[in-house]
């Protein structure tokens, strides 16, 4: 094994990227094999039908530094097209597999690299440090990772304002993984606080310039919302800010470059998750409120219909885009609202044909 490591290490340090990629892929393949063996181990005894030599665990002290060095070999245009593959990406992928294979053992080997490079003036160092941190979030225990996550979350949120687009893209991806893998208020571990949540507005605020960053930002908000799924309706920090979040995501979904970077679908998926837990009650309340208002105003409500209808129509179309099926509890208030409006403007039914046509299409 020492000879194999020497050969692969020399290949990674060499000038031929194709050869270096194969060397990294070799270690990724070993990780895959060891992960498969771990999956088949008997939990009670640890016995396995296949021999488990734990090559990755034994190679950690030399393998991890080699992989960390690959993270510094980014391409300037690495985020300009889908499907691009380079040594830095291969190294990060392998580092993630190593983390899943050995768990907590990888953390003390990676964190010094992160701490040294995260604040350097060179963008490659900052991006590599962020990528390294994001890559090891799956595998180690929450207990091992939580001190680093709690200490670094605010820093990462501030890094969303980095002057370099590569750093921002990778930061958004790392935040997305933190929320996906570690944020679970229902189980007693929440990485987000009121203070850091206010800082998380950068995730949707960066949509004006970078499509990749916007997509990863949508992913982070998606997993942040998903983390509250089983935590109870009153425990979500998202609730007071839901209208602003939805508005930002709608703006993101309507960007002209959305279809080029899968940004539109990411925004709609996030919209769907963000409204899922409270959609029925919010929609019911909104429809009942509108209906009550129309009923109270009476025929005078008719003069507001020209202005009001375009928002009603837009809302219905947005709901159709983000949700294939409307929850049954929302339908009665919708028709009740239409009924109240119709009763209020009984002598002004010129909008009836438009509403009926739209509902037939929906």
Automatic annotation (TrEMBL):
Q: Which InterPro entries match?
A: ARM-like (IPR011989), ARM-type_fold (IPR016024), Importin_beta (IPR040122)
- Matching Pfam families: HEAT_EZ (PF13513)
Set out the biological process GO terms recorded for this chain's protein: protein import into nucleus
Q: What domain of life?
A: Eukaryota
Its chief place of residence is cytoplasm
List where the protein spans the membrane.
none
Identify the keywords attached in UniProt to this record, alphabetized.
Cytoplasm, Protein transport, Repeat, Transport
Question: Which cellular components does GO assign to this protein?
Answer: cytoplasm
Subcellular location(s): the record lists:
Cytoplasm
Report if keyword Protein transport is assigned. Answer: yes
Q: Which PANTHER family match?
A: IMPORTIN BETA
**Record-given protein name:** Importin subunit beta-1
Q: Which organism is it from?
A: Sesamum angolense
């Amino acid at each position: 094994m020492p000879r194999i490591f020497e050969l692969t290490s020399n290949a990674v340090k060499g000038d031929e990227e194709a050869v270096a990629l194969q060397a990294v892929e070799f270690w990724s393949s070993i990780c895959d094999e060891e992960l498969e063996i771990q999956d088949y181990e008997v939990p009670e005894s640890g016995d396995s039908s296949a021999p488990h030599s734990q090559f990755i665990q034994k190679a950690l002290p030399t393998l991890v530094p080699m992989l960390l060095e690959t993270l510094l070999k980014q391409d300037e245009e690495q985020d300009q097209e889908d499907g691009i593959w380079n040594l830095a990406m291969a190294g990060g992928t392998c580092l993630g597999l190593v983390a899943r294979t050995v768990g907590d053992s990888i953390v003390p080997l990676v964190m010094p690299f992160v701490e040294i490079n995260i604040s350097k003036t060179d963008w490659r160092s900052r991006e590599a440090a962020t990528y390294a941190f994001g890559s090891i979030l799956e595998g180690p225990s929450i207990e091992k990772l939580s001190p680093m996550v709690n200490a670094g979350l605010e820093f990462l949120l501030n890094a969303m304002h980095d002057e370099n687009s590569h750093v921002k893209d990778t930061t958004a991806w790392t935040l997305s993984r933190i929320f996906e893998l570690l944020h679970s208020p229902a189980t007693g571990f929440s990485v987000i606080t009121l203070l850091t949540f206010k800082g998380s507005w950068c995730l949707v605020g960066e949509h004006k310039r970078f499509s990749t960053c916007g997509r990863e930002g949508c992913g982070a908000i998606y997993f942040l919302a998903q983390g509250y799924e089983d935590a109870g309706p009153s425990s979500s920090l998202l609730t007071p800010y839901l209208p602003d979040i939805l508005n930002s995501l709608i703006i993101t979904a309507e960007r002209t470059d959305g279809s080029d970077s899968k940004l539109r679908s990411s925004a709609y998926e996030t919209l769907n998750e963000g409204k899922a837990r409270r959609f029925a009650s919010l929609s019911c309340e909104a429809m009942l409120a509108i209906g009550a208002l129309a009923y109270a105003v009476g025929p005078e409500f008719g003069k507001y219909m020209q202005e009001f209808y375009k928002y009603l129509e837009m809302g219905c179309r947005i709901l159709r885009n983000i949700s294939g099926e409307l929850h049954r509890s929302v339908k009665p208030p919708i028709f009740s609202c239409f009924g109240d409006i119709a009763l209020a403007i009984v002598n002004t039914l010129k909008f009836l044909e438009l509403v009926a046509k739209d509902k037939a299409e929906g």
